[in-house]
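go over this:
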Amino acid sequence: MSSSAARDSRRIAVIKALAHPSRLAIAEALQDGERCVCELRDLVGADLSTVSKHLTVMRKAGLLDMEKRGLNVFYRLRCPCLMNFFECLDGLVPEPASRRSAR
């Protein structure tokens, strides 16, 4: 596989890993620093098994680092500037007129 194809493959994996509302919420929460799984479970509002599956997808894509401390597992973004990507997207995608007029 060429370096360009490998790069594209990594980019696609990252985008796919973020293409779920729960995983996007996790990434947004982690932009402010690490969180334990219990906090992320509460944030997502799903059971621990579901949250763990989301975190595994994100880790396999290279988005997260994890650290076990005692009985707790903490996650953090490997690349805190990830959210800059979404800020850029927010500038590309116009806000629906119904939201603009509600302000």
Observations:
- The helical segments are 3-18, 21-30, 37-44, 48-60, 82-92, 97-101.
- The first helix runs from residue 3 to 18.
- The two ends are 50 Å apart (CA to CA).
